[in-house]
Write a structure and sequence with these properties.
Elements (H helix, E strand, L loop, with lengths): L7 E4 L3 H12 L4 E4 L3 H10 L16 E3 L2 H5 L4 E4 L6 H8 L8 E4 L12 H9 L5 E5 L4 H5 L4 E6 L3 H11 L4 E6 L2 H23 L4 H22 L3 H4 L2 H12 L4 H10 L4 H8 L5 H14 L5 H10 L5 H9 L18
Parallel strand pairs: 1-2, 1-4, 2-3, 4-5, 5-6, 7-8
Antiparallel strand pairs: 6-7
Helix pairs in contact: 4-5, 8-9, 8-11, 8-12, 8-14, 8-15, 9-11, 12-13, 14-15, 15-16
The chain binds 1,4-dihydronicotinamide adenine dinucleotide and 1,3-dihydroxyacetonephosphate.
1,3-dihydroxyacetonephosphate binds next to helix 8, helix 11 and helix 12.
EC number: 1.1.1.94
Pathway: Membrane lipid metabolism; glycerophospholipid metabolism
GO biological process, one term: glycerol-3-phosphate catabolic process
């Protein structure tokens, strides 16, 4: 059970930050949630509800919320950053001078630094220094279900074993299993890529291409994840677990996914702008598709599904042209023979 000595600050009061902060508070750890929207923060702190992102779901009375970053971070033993990836760098910049010297930093954002394509652990290492314990929290987990207390499993990955265990300890509980590992690169890649691939299956479902097409895209999408993961030096088992396959299946099939819903709307003929406006929350794939392809180009890899998603998101091809392009590809072996060797080099 809880070890109340660990005080936690969660930064980012959107759906996922709120759900994780509520989970940790329910486990008995003193938890403060920082958000920039004063109305949302006041509602969480006083009415125990996030009416903008998790309407109607009661939050624990013990969860505190504030718009004052310094106050949120002061006295914290563990910092969990849950802003969208495009806001990760500026949040860490603001956090760096405020961080209590002993506090490690974990994050649950899924994506890369837009523009540079850097992994978030690379950004964190640069901005915090190499000695600060770091960890990634990722896996198949819709915020709404976690906030409702439905059973969930995810993974915490980082090189500092003691910190990884501390993060897993505050998350783990009767309705939540937190697994652990040390592969931040593979874990971050899986969380980022599944959002792009969810758009592809959403498009196919929006075009009513059938269940075979959906499953073909999921499986060939996993193949794209495994090949890029081998190139960047991630471990294959990371991508075959919660951070990869697990989150890919959830996001490609579950209509709670915003990335899947973007794909559904595109497949039904909507524009990216209209679909994103209607979803009204962060849709990470819009930027991540560019960064996945930048990474693939760097390693000279062909990722046809991810590439088609990028081109559809840019309006360079229609969903129908994307489908035609994928179906016209040459016949080939299912797996390159050397697929799993890259990770062992
Ligand atoms: N919602 C979910 O089910 C899950 C989300 N994630 C990831 O968590 C991250 C956050 O997503 P959500 O909470 O779902 O997004 P959301 O759209 O529900 O909320 C976004 C939050 O970020 C805040 N924000 C935006 N720009 C900011 C900035 N510059 N500085 C500070 N705060 C800023 C907004 O005010 C809002 O509170 C994303 O990377 C997402 O992929 C991961 C797992 C599950
Ligand atoms: O990451 C998620 C589930 O694990 C949430 O997916 P969406 O961002 O597509 O809603």
């Amino acid at each position: 059970m809880a070890t109340p000595a660990v005080a936690v600050a969660v930064l980012g009061a959107g759906s996922w930050g709120t759900a994780l902060a509520a989970l940790i508070a329910r486990h008995g750890f003193p938890t403060t949630l920082w958000g920039r929207d004063a109305a949302v923060v006041a509602a969480i702190d006083q009415r125990h509800e996030n009416p903008r992102y998790l309407p109607g779901i009661p939050l624990p009375d013990s969860l505190r919320a504030t718009t004052d970053l310094a106050a949120a971070v002061r006295g914290a033993d563990l910092l969990l950053v849950v802003v969208p990836s495009h806001a990760f760098t500026e949040t860490l910049r603001a956090l760096a001078p405020l961080r209590p010297p002993h506090a490690g930093v974990a994050w649950a954002a899924k994506g890369f630094e837009p523009g540079s394509g850097r992994f978030l652990h690379e950004v964190a290492t640069e901005l915090l220094g190499g000695d600060v314990p770091l960890a990634v929290v990722t896996g198949p987990s819709f915020a709404k279900e976690v906030a409702q207390g439905l059973p969930t499993a995810l993974t915490v990955q980082g090189e500092n074993t003691a910190f990884v265990q501390q993060v897993a300890c505050v998350l783990h509980g009767p309705e939540f299993r937190a697994y652990t590992g040390s592969d931040m690169r593979g874990a971050e890649l899986g969380g980022a890529m599944k959002n792009v691939l969810a758009v592809a299956t959403g498009v196919a479902d929006g075009m009513e291409l059938g269940l075979n097409a959906r499953t073909g895209l999921i499986t060939r999408g996993l193949n794209e994840m495994l090949r890029l993961n081998a190139a960047i030096g991630g471990r294959p088992e990371t991508l075959m677990g919660l951070a990869g396959l697990g989150d890919l299946v959830l996001t490609c099939t579950g209509d709670l996914s915003r990335n899947r819903r973007l794909g559904l709307a595109l497949g039904r003929g909507k524009t990216v702008e209209d679909a994103v406006r209607e979803i009204g929350q962060v849709v990470e794939s819009v930027q991540t598709a560019d960064e996945v392809m930048r990474l693939a180009d760097r390693y000279g890899l062909e990722l046809p599904i991810s590439e088609s998603v990028r081109d559809v998101l840019h309006g360079d091809i229609t969903p129908a042209e994307g489908l035609a392009r994928l179906m016209a590809r040459e016949r080939k072996a299912e797996y390159p023979e050397a697929l799993f060797q890259g990770a062992q080099d």
